[in-house]
Design goal:
The chain is α+β, with helices and mostly antiparallel strands and 110 residues long. The chain is built from 5 helices and 4 strands; from the N terminus they run H-E-E-H-H-E-E-H-H.
Length: 110
Amino acid sequence: MELSEAIEAGARLRPQGFGDLRTAYRRWPWSTPEVRTCALGAAYEAIGYAPIGTHWLHMPEDWRRLLSAPVACPQCGTRGVVFSVITHLNDTHRWPRELIAAWVRHLERK
């Protein structure tokens, strides 16, 4: 499964989260927490791994190559590797995961 496909599949599983791969969001202090995932957390969940601190250990090799490639943010031009720009798009620009997946698909086709 390509990274873009995994982001899309994972996005259908849970609401979007920010600040970490997987977060527990409480609408009210007494409410049951709702688990949310960022774009990369959604991708990990889609392939059957719970996103935790050792996430690089379970990453498919083609994802690893793509995520370490240098790239510029499509919105503001900030430079980094794909991994950090995906995080930046999710947390800073608050792009929906489906839009992030479309951008990643564009990179996969290059």
